[in-house]
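Agenda item 2: iron/sulfur cluster complex prediction
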Amino acid sequence: MSETKHNWTKEEILDIYNKPLMELLYEAATIHRLHHDPNTVQVSTLLSIKTGGCSEDCGYCPQAARYHTNIEGNDLMTVQQVKAQALRAKSSGSSRVCMGAAWRNVKDGEEFDQVLEMVRTINKLDMEVCCTLGMVTENQAQRLAEAGLYAYNHNLDSSEEYYKEVISTRGFEDRLETIDNVRKTNVTVCSGGIIGMGEKKEDRAGMLVALSTLNPQPESTPINALVAVEGTPLEDQEPVSIWDMIRMVATTRIVMPETQVRLSAGRTQMTREGQAMCFFAGANSIFAGDKLLTTPNPDVNEDMKMFELLGLNPQKPFTKKVQPKTVEATESQYQDLGEKPKWTRPEHTIARNEKAKEKAKTIK
Ligand code: SF4
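Presented output:
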């Protein structure tokens, strides 16, 4: 079995990305077979537990309050609502529920306590639980771990250089710090990014350098194709080509052999044949459900038909790691410290983000 390498350089990764396609696919598929069952795909359901109204300025995101998009915002869901959705996801073949809240960061208090209860509830349904709640402190990550969280998602989005062209309200190092805080617990790390935001191949390679040089590497890496939403700064980006997606998946598979590589946003723009090539290239996870937070996603029945056609099976929960134990709130050894994670506000603005913000003011 090939060793996991933690000192990839941008040049080495670019050499892989630029290989003749058949060679790239063959190499990625070979590595995939050494580390994973090629006919098993992990299925996650992404649930937006709190939608819209976010104070950040991520250029791709319709949930940023400063842009004018047609999404319907909602307050934090109740534990019962989340449980009902999780049961539905379980009955349609998902092994994991990923709960997303449009927050810049976690704030200790009532709402976080409610999220911790959601984590306990889903873990008791024998499903893997993932959260994506923005930045977290080490204590908050420990509290999530204690509640039974299986994974925490915090994407790097792009290379450190291109990140500055997409988000101005926090720095790349803030992302790394949250990942580091999660790593101090027994929660697995899910981190990836988005292609099609106008970045160069070098940025795609740069993002993979940042992810693959983490030690350990993330247990899962979502590769998203930008869904350009009207009203966001990136609304005019052309859809990314399927060939770029296949190359990105294959390259991720080669540099991160053990990681579950997830086909995430943008699957509605892909044909079944395109998705099949991504699975061949080493993708072994998808998001199921008709919505990915706020953007469209293929219907779960369509996905199950595709699985049947390709002879793929949904992965059972806790195949890669044992189920975490849930500690009840009354027995917790951690306290609510009233914390907010440290973060930096970079000293720059992004022209297209400012333009979208100004345009939104004229529409509201
Ligand atoms: S991606 Fe997350 S942090 Fe950025 S604007 Fe959207 S909800 Fe907020």
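Discussion summary: The pocket of iron/sulfur cluster is lined by residues 54, 56, 58, 61, 63-64, 102, 104, 134 (CB under 6 Å).
Owner for follow-up: CH.
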